[in-house]
Design brief:
Elements (H helix, E strand, L loop, with lengths): L7 H16 L13 E9 L4 E3 H7 L1 E13 L12 E12 L10 E9 L4 E11 H4 L23 E13 L4 E3 L3 E8 L1
Parallel strand pairs: 2-9
Antiparallel strand pairs: 1-3, 3-6, 4-5, 4-7, 7-8, 7-9
Length: about 190
């Protein structure tokens, strides 16, 4: 049996891949930080189930009437302080197809300002989950009457999307925090 020398470049690449793997194995909701709280989307009301793209394009957006975010201490028996309160700074909304199509609207990332107190909740009203950037680009723009009113990829009059939403912020103590992905399904018609 012979021993072969390891190529130094391959060894370096192996260490790099190992380090990336270890760093990515954290709780996704704390973004690898040592945050002592969890940000969770606990409730939403006024969620549309079916949206007319033509009507929404005239209004300029699709909104959810009310979302509730909760700031949960990781150790419910431990001490808490105002430094564990979370200042929200952005929301990311992505889309995936729940039908046979493959095209999706561009992601939506928006700045958002709100404070979620430690052990408490914060309510966001009329959060836009789709704007003109999503409504006026394929695949949703295909459903506009002036573009034919059907999905040019599938030939269907209906596009079904899963809407994935995630919130980002920081505790007042400086730890990065993110909610997990929450999803809901919407049907789009002309």
């Amino acid at each position: 049996m012979s021993m072969r020398a390891i190529n130094p470049r391959l060894g370096t690449l192996w260490v790099l891949f190992l380090a990336i793997g270890i760093l990515s194995c954290g709780d996704e909701r704390t973004l690898g930080s040592q945050a002592t709280v969890i940000l969770s989307l606990t409730d939403f009301d006024g969620l549309p189930f079916q949206v007319s793209v033509n009507d929404a394009a005239q209004v300029g957006a699709v909104t959810v009437e009310q979302l509730t975010l909760q700031n949960i201490p990781k150790d419910p028996q431990g001490p808490t302080s105002d430094l564990m309160s979370i200042e929200l700074d952005s929301v990311e909304i992505t889309y995936s197809r729940a039908d046979v199509g493959t095209r999706v609207p561009p992601p939506r990332v928006r700045t958002i300002f709100s404070l979620v107190p430690v052990g408490g909740t914060s309510t966001l009203n009329n959060l836009e989950i789709l704007g003109l950037e999503q409504l006026l680009n394929p695949p949703l723009s295909d459903l506009l009457f002036q573009n034919g009113g059907f999905d040019s990829e599938t030939g269907s009059l209906l596009i079904v999307l899963d809407v994935n939403i995630r919130f980002f912020g920081r505790t007042l103590g400086g730890d990065k925090v993110a909610s997990g992905f929450d999803s809901f399904r919407l049907e789009f018609v002309p």
